[in-house]
Write a structure and sequence with these properties.
Bound molecules: S-adenosyl-L-homocysteine, iron/sulfur cluster, FE3-S4 cluster
CATH class of the largest domain: Alpha Beta
CATH superfamily of the largest domain: tm_1862 like domain
Distance between the termini: 65 Å
Number of strands: 21
Shape: globular
Structural class: alpha/beta
Strand content: 15-25%
Strand order of the largest sheet: 3-2-4-5-6-7
Number of helices: 13
Protein backbone atom coordinates (compact mmCIF):
# COMPACT_ATOMS: atom_id res chain seq x y z
CA UNK A 1 0.00 0.00 0.00
CA UNK A 2 1.27 3.43 -0.92
CA UNK A 3 -0.63 6.30 0.71
CA UNK A 4 -0.34 9.97 -0.27
CA UNK A 5 1.76 12.32 1.84
CA UNK A 6 1.23 16.08 1.71
CA UNK A 7 4.68 16.94 3.05
CA UNK A 8 6.25 15.02 0.18
CA UNK A 9 3.72 16.47 -2.26
CA UNK A 10 4.81 20.04 -1.61
CA UNK A 11 8.54 19.43 -1.96
CA UNK A 12 10.18 21.13 -4.94
CA UNK A 13 13.76 20.57 -6.11
CA UNK A 14 15.64 22.04 -9.07
CA UNK A 15 15.93 18.70 -10.80
CA UNK A 16 14.65 18.57 -14.34
CA UNK A 17 11.64 16.27 -14.79
CA UNK A 18 12.21 12.88 -16.33
CA UNK A 19 10.46 12.13 -19.59
CA UNK A 20 9.01 8.64 -19.64
CA UNK A 21 8.50 7.03 -23.02
CA UNK A 22 5.25 5.08 -23.23
CA UNK A 23 5.22 4.50 -26.98
CA UNK A 24 4.47 0.91 -27.97
CA UNK A 25 4.17 -0.48 -24.45
CA UNK A 26 3.58 -4.22 -24.18
CA UNK A 27 -0.03 -4.92 -23.32
CA UNK A 28 -1.83 -7.99 -22.14
CA UNK A 29 -5.52 -8.22 -23.10
CA UNK A 30 -6.81 -8.42 -19.55
CA UNK A 31 -9.96 -6.52 -20.49
CA UNK A 32 -11.19 -8.85 -23.23
CA UNK A 33 -15.00 -9.13 -23.18
CA UNK A 34 -15.15 -6.62 -20.34
CA UNK A 35 -16.53 -3.10 -20.24
CA UNK A 36 -15.53 0.09 -18.42
CA UNK A 37 -17.23 3.31 -17.37
CA UNK A 38 -15.33 6.41 -16.26
CA UNK A 39 -17.10 9.25 -14.46
CA UNK A 40 -15.05 12.43 -14.64
CA UNK A 41 -15.18 15.39 -12.26
CA UNK A 42 -13.23 18.66 -12.33
CA UNK A 43 -11.27 20.58 -14.92
CA UNK A 44 -10.18 19.97 -18.52
CA UNK A 45 -6.96 18.45 -17.21
CA UNK A 46 -9.02 15.66 -15.71
CA UNK A 47 -11.23 15.32 -18.79
CA UNK A 48 -8.12 14.88 -20.88
CA UNK A 49 -6.61 12.36 -18.44
CA UNK A 50 -9.84 10.40 -18.80
CA UNK A 51 -9.39 10.39 -22.59
CA UNK A 52 -5.97 8.84 -22.02
CA UNK A 53 -7.26 6.25 -19.53
CA UNK A 54 -10.02 5.30 -21.96
CA UNK A 55 -7.46 4.58 -24.67
CA UNK A 56 -5.28 2.60 -22.23
CA UNK A 57 -8.30 0.49 -21.23
CA UNK A 58 -9.39 -0.07 -24.82
CA UNK A 59 -5.87 -1.24 -25.69
CA UNK A 60 -6.30 -3.82 -22.91
CA UNK A 61 -9.44 -5.09 -24.62
CA UNK A 62 -12.08 -3.25 -22.58
CA UNK A 63 -14.94 -1.56 -24.40
CA UNK A 64 -16.94 1.42 -23.16
CA UNK A 65 -20.21 0.74 -21.31
CA UNK A 66 -23.00 3.24 -21.96
CA UNK A 67 -24.52 2.71 -18.52
CA UNK A 68 -22.45 2.75 -15.33
CA UNK A 69 -24.42 -0.06 -13.66
CA UNK A 70 -23.58 -2.43 -16.51
CA UNK A 71 -19.81 -1.96 -16.52
CA UNK A 72 -17.24 -4.48 -15.26
CA UNK A 73 -14.92 -1.67 -14.24
CA UNK A 74 -16.04 1.71 -12.88
CA UNK A 75 -13.54 4.51 -12.33
CA UNK A 76 -14.23 7.86 -10.68
CA UNK A 77 -11.69 10.41 -11.92
CA UNK A 78 -12.05 12.95 -9.14
CA UNK A 79 -11.49 16.64 -8.37
CA UNK A 80 -10.63 18.08 -4.96
CA UNK A 81 -10.62 21.80 -5.67
CA UNK A 82 -13.43 22.52 -3.17
CA UNK A 83 -15.11 20.58 -0.39
CA UNK A 84 -18.35 20.23 -2.35
CA UNK A 85 -16.40 18.61 -5.22
CA UNK A 86 -15.23 15.99 -2.72
CA UNK A 87 -18.72 15.58 -1.28
CA UNK A 88 -20.18 14.90 -4.72
CA UNK A 89 -17.70 12.08 -5.18
CA UNK A 90 -18.33 10.62 -1.72
CA UNK A 91 -22.04 10.58 -2.59
CA UNK A 92 -21.23 8.60 -5.72
CA UNK A 93 -18.97 6.21 -3.78
CA UNK A 94 -21.98 5.55 -1.56
CA UNK A 95 -24.04 4.69 -4.64
CA UNK A 96 -21.34 2.32 -5.85
CA UNK A 97 -21.90 0.13 -2.78
CA UNK A 98 -25.26 -0.96 -4.18
CA UNK A 99 -23.67 -1.79 -7.51
CA UNK A 100 -21.05 -3.89 -5.71
CA UNK A 101 -23.74 -5.73 -3.74
CA UNK A 102 -25.62 -6.55 -6.93
CA UNK A 103 -22.44 -7.54 -8.76
CA UNK A 104 -19.52 -8.49 -6.48
CA UNK A 105 -17.19 -8.96 -9.48
CA UNK A 106 -17.30 -5.34 -10.56
CA UNK A 107 -14.01 -3.48 -10.01
CA UNK A 108 -14.53 -0.05 -8.43
CA UNK A 109 -11.71 2.49 -8.67
CA UNK A 110 -11.09 6.04 -7.52
CA UNK A 111 -8.36 8.16 -9.11
CA UNK A 112 -7.52 11.78 -9.86
CA UNK A 113 -6.88 14.67 -7.49
CA UNK A 114 -8.87 13.41 -4.49
CA UNK A 115 -6.77 10.26 -4.37
CA UNK A 116 -3.76 12.51 -3.73
CA UNK A 117 -5.27 13.80 -0.46
CA UNK A 118 -4.23 12.11 2.80
CA UNK A 119 -7.63 12.74 4.41
CA UNK A 120 -9.48 11.18 1.49
CA UNK A 121 -7.45 7.99 1.45
CA UNK A 122 -7.85 7.58 5.23
CA UNK A 123 -11.59 8.03 4.83
CA UNK A 124 -11.72 5.44 2.04
CA UNK A 125 -9.79 2.93 4.13
CA UNK A 126 -12.06 3.48 7.14
CA UNK A 127 -15.44 4.01 5.53
CA UNK A 128 -15.61 2.71 1.96
CA UNK A 129 -14.15 -0.82 1.96
CA UNK A 130 -16.08 -1.72 -1.19
CA UNK A 131 -13.65 0.26 -3.35
CA UNK A 132 -11.09 -2.01 -5.06
CA UNK A 133 -8.54 0.38 -6.44
CA UNK A 134 -7.19 3.81 -5.52
CA UNK A 135 -4.47 5.44 -7.60
CA UNK A 136 -3.36 9.03 -8.16
CA UNK A 137 -2.52 11.55 -10.84
CA UNK A 138 1.12 10.43 -11.05
CA UNK A 139 0.51 6.80 -11.93
CA UNK A 140 -2.60 6.46 -14.07
CA UNK A 141 -0.35 5.27 -16.89
CA UNK A 142 0.28 2.18 -14.71
CA UNK A 143 -3.38 1.26 -15.01
CA UNK A 144 -2.65 -2.08 -16.79
CA UNK A 145 -0.33 -3.20 -13.97
CA UNK A 146 -2.63 -1.91 -11.22
CA UNK A 147 -5.66 -3.66 -12.67
CA UNK A 148 -3.81 -6.91 -13.14
CA UNK A 149 -2.60 -6.90 -9.54
CA UNK A 150 -6.09 -6.13 -8.27
CA UNK A 151 -7.63 -8.87 -10.43
CA UNK A 152 -5.15 -11.43 -9.07
CA UNK A 153 -5.25 -10.47 -5.38
CA UNK A 154 -8.88 -9.32 -5.24
CA UNK A 155 -8.24 -6.96 -2.34
CA UNK A 156 -8.25 -3.17 -2.11
CA UNK A 157 -5.14 -1.80 -3.78
CA UNK A 158 -4.02 1.71 -2.81
CA UNK A 159 -1.14 3.02 -4.89
CA UNK A 160 -0.75 6.80 -4.70
CA UNK A 161 2.59 8.57 -5.12
CA UNK A 162 3.36 12.00 -3.72
CA UNK A 163 6.24 13.30 -5.74
CA UNK A 164 7.20 16.11 -8.05
CA UNK A 165 6.27 14.06 -11.07
CA UNK A 166 7.42 13.04 -14.52
CA UNK A 167 6.29 13.76 -18.04
CA UNK A 168 4.71 10.86 -19.90
CA UNK A 169 5.01 10.89 -23.67
CA UNK A 170 3.32 8.52 -26.05
CA UNK A 171 0.28 7.57 -24.00
CA UNK A 172 -2.61 6.68 -26.27
CA UNK A 173 -5.68 8.94 -26.22
CA UNK A 174 -9.30 8.41 -27.20
CA UNK A 175 -10.49 11.90 -28.05
CA UNK A 176 -14.09 12.77 -27.32
CA UNK A 177 -14.40 14.85 -30.49
CA UNK A 178 -12.80 14.57 -33.91
CA UNK A 179 -13.02 18.28 -34.56
CA UNK A 180 -11.47 19.63 -31.37
CA UNK A 181 -8.75 18.46 -29.03
CA UNK A 182 -6.93 19.23 -25.84
CA UNK A 183 -3.14 19.33 -25.81
CA UNK A 184 -1.21 19.36 -22.53
CA UNK A 185 1.69 21.77 -22.74
CA UNK A 186 2.64 21.45 -19.09
CA UNK A 187 1.67 19.62 -15.92
CA UNK A 188 1.51 20.60 -12.25
CA UNK A 189 1.82 24.02 -10.63
CA UNK A 190 4.44 25.81 -8.54
CA UNK A 191 2.43 28.91 -7.68
CA UNK A 192 1.10 27.62 -4.35
CA UNK A 193 -1.73 30.15 -4.07
CA UNK A 194 -2.48 29.78 -0.37
CA UNK A 195 -6.03 28.43 -0.85
CA UNK A 196 -5.27 25.93 -3.59
CA UNK A 197 -4.75 22.17 -3.45
CA UNK A 198 -3.59 21.73 -7.06
CA UNK A 199 0.19 22.06 -6.46
CA UNK A 200 -0.17 19.17 -3.97
CA UNK A 201 -2.35 16.95 -6.15
CA UNK A 202 -0.59 17.52 -9.45
CA UNK A 203 3.07 17.99 -8.52
CA UNK A 204 5.58 20.48 -9.74
CA UNK A 205 5.33 22.57 -12.85
CA UNK A 206 6.84 20.63 -15.72
CA UNK A 207 6.71 21.70 -19.34
CA UNK A 208 6.60 19.30 -22.26
CA UNK A 209 9.35 19.72 -24.86
CA UNK A 210 8.59 21.90 -27.86
CA UNK A 211 9.13 19.03 -30.30
CA UNK A 212 6.67 16.76 -28.50
CA UNK A 213 3.96 19.43 -28.40
CA UNK A 214 4.45 20.43 -32.03
CA UNK A 215 4.39 16.78 -33.15
CA UNK A 216 1.07 16.31 -31.41
CA UNK A 217 -0.35 19.55 -32.81
CA UNK A 218 0.76 18.74 -36.37
CA UNK A 219 -0.69 15.28 -36.09
CA UNK A 220 -4.02 16.80 -35.01
CA UNK A 221 -3.88 19.26 -37.88
CA UNK A 222 -3.31 16.40 -40.34
CA UNK A 223 -6.35 14.65 -38.90
CA UNK A 224 -8.45 17.73 -39.70
CA UNK A 225 -8.91 19.01 -36.15
CA UNK A 226 -10.35 22.56 -36.27
CA UNK A 227 -9.73 23.67 -32.70
CA UNK A 228 -7.06 22.90 -30.14
CA UNK A 229 -6.92 24.03 -26.53
CA UNK A 230 -3.49 24.16 -24.91
CA UNK A 231 -3.76 23.03 -21.32
CA UNK A 232 -1.79 23.99 -18.24
CA UNK A 233 -2.59 25.31 -14.75
CA UNK A 234 -0.67 28.41 -15.71
CA UNK A 235 0.23 28.38 -19.41
CA UNK A 236 2.10 31.69 -19.23
CA UNK A 237 4.79 29.99 -17.15
CA UNK A 238 5.39 27.45 -19.93
CA UNK A 239 9.09 26.76 -20.40
CA UNK A 240 10.29 28.39 -17.20
CA UNK A 241 11.37 24.98 -15.90
CA UNK A 242 13.24 24.09 -19.10
CA UNK A 243 16.86 24.95 -19.79
CA UNK A 244 16.28 26.86 -23.05
CA UNK A 245 14.58 30.22 -23.44
CA UNK A 246 11.63 29.00 -25.49
CA UNK A 247 8.65 30.60 -23.75
CA UNK A 248 4.87 30.40 -24.07
CA UNK A 249 4.78 33.26 -26.53
CA UNK A 250 7.20 31.34 -28.83
CA UNK A 251 5.17 28.18 -28.54
CA UNK A 252 1.96 30.03 -29.28
CA UNK A 253 3.51 31.66 -32.34
CA UNK A 254 4.71 28.30 -33.68
CA UNK A 255 1.31 26.75 -33.09
CA UNK A 256 -0.52 29.70 -34.71
CA UNK A 257 1.64 29.17 -37.81
CA UNK A 258 0.11 25.70 -38.32
CA UNK A 259 -3.04 27.56 -39.44
CA UNK A 260 -5.32 25.38 -37.35
CA UNK A 261 -8.47 27.56 -37.47
CA UNK A 262 -8.92 27.95 -33.71
CA UNK A 263 -6.28 27.94 -31.02
CA UNK A 264 -7.22 28.40 -27.38
CA UNK A 265 -5.30 28.07 -24.14
CA UNK A 266 -6.09 27.91 -20.47
CA UNK A 267 -5.49 28.99 -17.78
CA UNK A 268 -3.56 32.26 -17.65
CA UNK A 269 -2.19 33.60 -14.40
CA UNK A 270 -1.54 37.37 -14.52
CA UNK A 271 1.77 36.72 -12.72
CA UNK A 272 3.70 35.44 -15.76
CA UNK A 273 1.75 37.26 -18.44
CA UNK A 274 4.07 38.54 -21.17
CA UNK A 275 2.50 41.64 -22.67
CA UNK A 276 4.23 40.96 -26.00
CA UNK A 277 1.52 38.37 -26.38
CA UNK A 278 -0.80 41.20 -27.38
CA UNK A 279 1.16 41.63 -30.62
CA UNK A 280 1.04 37.89 -31.28
CA UNK A 281 -2.74 38.00 -30.89
CA UNK A 282 -2.99 40.91 -33.27
CA UNK A 283 -0.84 39.09 -35.84
CA UNK A 284 -2.53 35.67 -35.89
CA UNK A 285 -6.28 35.64 -36.37
CA UNK A 286 -6.52 31.94 -35.48
CA UNK A 287 -5.69 32.76 -31.84
CA UNK A 288 -9.26 32.99 -30.63
CA UNK A 289 -10.13 36.30 -28.96
CA UNK A 290 -10.78 34.92 -25.51
CA UNK A 291 -8.57 34.77 -22.43
CA UNK A 292 -9.49 33.31 -19.08
CA UNK A 293 -7.63 35.49 -16.61
CA UNK A 294 -8.56 34.72 -12.98
CA UNK A 295 -8.42 37.73 -10.68
CA UNK A 296 -9.65 35.90 -7.52
CA UNK A 297 -10.14 39.14 -5.53
CA UNK A 298 -10.19 42.89 -6.06
CA UNK A 299 -8.62 43.65 -2.68
CA UNK A 300 -4.84 44.04 -2.55
CA UNK A 301 -4.85 42.87 1.05
CA UNK A 302 -6.62 39.63 0.15
CA UNK A 303 -4.56 39.13 -3.03
CA UNK A 304 -1.47 39.30 -0.86
CA UNK A 305 -2.87 36.77 1.61
CA UNK A 306 -3.72 34.54 -1.36
CA UNK A 307 -0.13 34.77 -2.63
CA UNK A 308 -1.23 35.86 -6.09
CA UNK A 309 1.71 38.23 -6.63
CA UNK A 310 -0.15 41.05 -8.41
CA UNK A 311 -2.16 44.05 -7.31
CA UNK A 312 -5.62 45.09 -8.36
CA UNK A 313 -4.06 47.93 -10.32
CA UNK A 314 -1.65 45.64 -12.17
CA UNK A 315 -4.54 43.36 -13.07
CA UNK A 316 -6.70 46.19 -14.41
CA UNK A 317 -3.75 47.53 -16.34
CA UNK A 318 -3.15 44.19 -18.02
CA UNK A 319 -6.87 43.77 -18.60
CA UNK A 320 -7.13 47.10 -20.39
CA UNK A 321 -4.13 46.35 -22.60
CA UNK A 322 -5.61 42.99 -23.57
CA UNK A 323 -8.86 44.72 -24.45
CA UNK A 324 -7.04 46.56 -27.24
CA UNK A 325 -6.98 43.26 -29.14
CA UNK A 326 -9.95 43.37 -31.54
CA UNK A 327 -13.03 41.57 -30.21
CA UNK A 328 -11.11 40.28 -27.14
CA UNK A 329 -13.32 38.63 -24.53
CA UNK A 330 -12.04 38.11 -21.01
CA UNK A 331 -13.46 35.84 -18.35
CA UNK A 332 -12.31 35.38 -14.78
CA UNK A 333 -12.53 33.40 -11.53
CA UNK A 334 -13.41 35.06 -8.22
CA UNK A 335 -13.35 33.66 -4.69
CA UNK A 336 -15.47 35.32 -1.99
CA UNK A 337 -15.14 34.71 1.73
CA UNK A 338 -11.39 34.14 1.84
CA UNK A 339 -10.38 34.00 5.54
CA UNK A 340 -10.77 37.44 7.06
CA UNK A 341 -12.31 39.06 3.96
CA UNK A 342 -13.98 42.22 5.25
CA UNK A 343 -16.95 43.94 3.73
CA UNK A 344 -14.57 46.58 2.45
CA UNK A 345 -12.43 43.92 0.73
CA UNK A 346 -15.55 42.52 -0.88
CA UNK A 347 -16.67 45.97 -2.03
CA UNK A 348 -13.31 46.33 -3.75
CA UNK A 349 -13.92 43.10 -5.63
CA UNK A 350 -17.33 44.38 -6.72
CA UNK A 351 -15.78 47.65 -7.85
CA UNK A 352 -13.32 45.77 -10.09
CA UNK A 353 -16.19 43.78 -11.58
CA UNK A 354 -18.01 47.04 -12.32
CA UNK A 355 -14.89 48.44 -13.92
CA UNK A 356 -13.81 45.44 -15.99
CA UNK A 357 -17.29 44.22 -16.90
CA UNK A 358 -16.11 40.66 -17.49
CA UNK A 359 -17.63 38.68 -20.34
CA UNK A 360 -18.29 35.91 -17.84
CA UNK A 361 -16.92 34.63 -14.56
CA UNK A 362 -16.85 31.58 -12.36
CA UNK A 363 -17.47 32.51 -8.74
CA UNK A 364 -16.83 30.45 -5.64
CA UNK A 365 -17.07 30.60 -1.89
CA UNK A 366 -13.68 29.93 -0.32
CA UNK A 367 -13.34 26.30 0.65
CA UNK A 368 -10.85 25.13 3.25
CA UNK A 369 -8.43 22.57 1.80
CA UNK A 370 -6.55 20.59 4.43
CA UNK A 371 -2.80 21.07 4.09
CA UNK A 372 -2.93 24.48 2.39
CA UNK A 373 -1.75 27.62 4.26
CA UNK A 374 -5.19 29.31 4.02
CA UNK A 375 -6.77 26.42 5.91
CA UNK A 376 -4.88 27.60 9.00
CA UNK A 377 -5.78 31.28 8.62
CA UNK A 378 -8.17 32.83 11.10
CA UNK A 379 -11.60 32.99 9.52
CA UNK A 380 -14.31 34.81 11.42
CA UNK A 381 -16.58 35.59 8.47
CA UNK A 382 -19.99 33.96 8.87
CA UNK A 383 -20.93 31.46 6.19
CA UNK A 384 -24.21 33.33 5.76
CA UNK A 385 -22.25 36.50 4.96
CA UNK A 386 -20.19 34.60 2.42
CA UNK A 387 -23.35 33.32 0.76
CA UNK A 388 -24.77 36.83 0.59
CA UNK A 389 -21.55 38.12 -0.95
CA UNK A 390 -21.66 35.37 -3.56
CA UNK A 391 -25.23 36.31 -4.48
CA UNK A 392 -24.39 39.99 -4.75
CA UNK A 393 -21.36 39.19 -6.86
CA UNK A 394 -23.31 36.83 -9.10
CA UNK A 395 -25.89 39.50 -9.82
CA UNK A 396 -23.15 41.85 -11.03
CA UNK A 397 -21.48 39.10 -13.08
CA UNK A 398 -24.79 38.15 -14.71
CA UNK A 399 -25.52 41.75 -15.61
CA UNK A 400 -22.27 42.08 -17.56
CA UNK A 401 -22.45 38.61 -19.05
CA UNK A 402 -25.85 39.47 -20.52
CA UNK A 403 -24.50 42.81 -21.72
CA UNK A 404 -21.58 41.02 -23.38
CA UNK A 405 -24.01 38.64 -25.09
CA UNK A 406 -26.40 41.36 -26.20
CA UNK A 407 -23.92 42.86 -28.60
CA UNK A 408 -24.17 39.66 -30.67
CA UNK A 409 -27.90 40.04 -31.31
CA UNK A 410 -28.60 39.98 -35.07
CA UNK A 411 -24.90 39.45 -35.79
CA UNK A 412 -23.61 36.61 -37.93
CA UNK A 413 -20.78 34.80 -36.15
CA UNK A 414 -18.80 31.62 -36.84
CA UNK A 415 -19.76 28.72 -34.56
CA UNK A 416 -17.98 25.39 -34.25
CA UNK A 417 -20.78 22.88 -33.76
CA UNK A 418 -19.90 20.24 -31.18
CA UNK A 419 -22.92 18.08 -30.62
CA UNK A 420 -26.66 17.84 -30.11
CA UNK A 421 -27.75 19.61 -26.96
CA UNK A 422 -28.12 17.40 -23.89
CA UNK A 423 -31.29 19.22 -22.91
CA UNK A 424 -33.03 19.16 -26.28
CA UNK A 425 -32.07 16.61 -28.92
CA UNK A 426 -33.55 18.85 -31.65
CA UNK A 427 -31.01 21.54 -30.88
CA UNK A 428 -27.33 21.67 -31.83
CA UNK A 429 -24.76 23.29 -29.60
CA UNK A 430 -21.31 24.78 -30.05
CA UNK A 431 -19.09 27.74 -29.31
CA UNK A 432 -18.22 31.03 -30.94
CA UNK A 433 -14.54 31.92 -31.16
CA UNK A 434 -15.15 34.26 -28.22
CA UNK A 435 -16.16 31.23 -26.12
CA UNK A 436 -19.88 31.95 -26.06
CA UNK A 437 -22.10 28.91 -26.00
CA UNK A 438 -24.43 29.00 -29.01
CA UNK A 439 -27.49 26.79 -29.41
CA UNK A 440 -29.17 26.50 -32.77
CA UNK A 441 -31.61 24.53 -34.86
CA UNK A 442 -29.89 22.73 -37.68
CA UNK A 443 -28.94 19.54 -39.42
CA UNK A 444 -26.82 17.06 -37.43
CA UNK A 445 -24.55 16.85 -40.46
CA UNK A 446 -23.14 20.21 -39.34
CA UNK A 447 -21.56 18.69 -36.22
CA UNK A 448 -17.81 19.17 -36.42
CA UNK A 449 -17.98 22.15 -38.77
CA UNK A 450 -17.53 25.88 -38.35
CA UNK A 451 -20.68 27.50 -39.73
CA UNK A 452 -22.01 31.07 -39.88
CA UNK A 453 -24.84 31.54 -37.42
CA UNK A 454 -27.19 34.49 -37.11
CA UNK A 455 -27.91 35.22 -33.45
CA UNK A 456 -31.64 35.65 -32.93
CA UNK A 457 -31.94 35.43 -29.15
CA UNK A 458 -29.69 36.30 -26.24
CA UNK A 459 -29.73 34.89 -22.72
CA UNK A 460 -27.41 35.44 -19.76
CA UNK A 461 -25.33 32.31 -20.30
CA UNK A 462 -25.95 31.46 -23.95
CA UNK A 463 -26.89 32.67 -27.41
CA UNK A 464 -29.47 31.18 -29.72
CA UNK A 465 -29.33 31.38 -33.49
CA UNK A 466 -29.90 29.89 -36.90
CA UNK A 467 -27.49 28.76 -39.55
CA UNK A 468 -27.07 31.18 -42.41
CA UNK A 469 -27.31 29.25 -45.67
CA UNK A 470 -24.23 29.60 -47.80
CA UNK A 471 -24.87 30.18 -51.50
N1 LIG B 1 -4.77 27.26 -12.41
C1 LIG B 1 -5.90 28.06 -12.48
C2 LIG B 1 -7.02 27.69 -11.56
C3 LIG B 1 -7.37 26.30 -11.31
S1 LIG B 1 -8.59 26.05 -10.10
C4 LIG B 1 -5.49 29.47 -12.14
O1 LIG B 1 -4.66 29.69 -11.32
O2 LIG B 1 -6.08 30.36 -12.67
C5 LIG B 1 -9.97 26.96 -10.73
C6 LIG B 1 -10.49 27.99 -9.80
O3 LIG B 1 -10.99 27.39 -8.60
C7 LIG B 1 -9.48 28.99 -9.28
O4 LIG B 1 -9.21 29.99 -10.20
C8 LIG B 1 -10.14 29.50 -8.04
O5 LIG B 1 -10.96 30.60 -8.31
C9 LIG B 1 -11.00 28.34 -7.58
N2 LIG B 1 -10.47 27.74 -6.36
C10 LIG B 1 -9.30 27.10 -6.19
N3 LIG B 1 -9.15 26.71 -4.91
C11 LIG B 1 -10.25 27.12 -4.24
C12 LIG B 1 -10.68 27.03 -2.88
N4 LIG B 1 -9.94 26.46 -1.96
N5 LIG B 1 -11.90 27.56 -2.56
C13 LIG B 1 -12.66 28.16 -3.49
N6 LIG B 1 -12.30 28.27 -4.78
C14 LIG B 1 -11.10 27.76 -5.17
FE1 LIG C 1 -4.01 26.79 -7.89
FE2 LIG C 1 -2.80 29.12 -8.01
FE3 LIG C 1 -1.73 26.99 -9.23
FE4 LIG C 1 -3.96 28.09 -10.17
S1 LIG C 1 -1.93 29.06 -10.06
S2 LIG C 1 -3.55 25.92 -9.88
S3 LIG C 1 -5.01 28.74 -8.32
S4 LIG C 1 -1.97 27.28 -7.04
FE1 LIG D 1 -9.89 19.63 -9.74
FE2 LIG D 1 -7.53 18.54 -9.94
FE3 LIG D 1 -8.49 19.99 -11.92
S1 LIG D 1 -8.37 19.49 -8.14
S2 LIG D 1 -9.77 21.48 -10.87
S3 LIG D 1 -9.33 18.10 -11.19
S4 LIG D 1 -6.37 19.82 -11.31
Amino acid sequence: MQKPNLTKAKKRTNEQSMIIDCFNREIEKIGQNKTYFIKTYGCQMNEHDTEKMQAILENLGFSEAKIMEEANLILLNTCSIRENANNKVFGMVGRLKKIKEANPNVILGLCGCMAQEEVVVEKILNTYPWLDLVFGTHNFSDLPKLLKTQMLNKEMLVEVYSKEGEIYEGLPVKRKYQHKAWVNIMYGCDKFCTYCIVPYTRGKQRSRLKKDILNEVNDLKNKGVLEITLLGQNVNAYGKDLKDDYAFIDLLTDIAKTNIPRIRFMTSHPWDFDENMIDVFKKYSNLTPHIHLPIQSGSDRILKLMGRNYTKEAYINLYQKLKTIPNMHISTDIIVGFPGESDLDFQETLAVVEKCQFDYAFTFIFSKRTGTPAAKMRDDVLFKTKQERLQTLNRAIEKYCLKSNQKFLNQIIPVLIDDVSEKDKQVLTGYSNTMKRVNLKGDKKLIGQIVPVKITEVKTWSLFGEVVERN
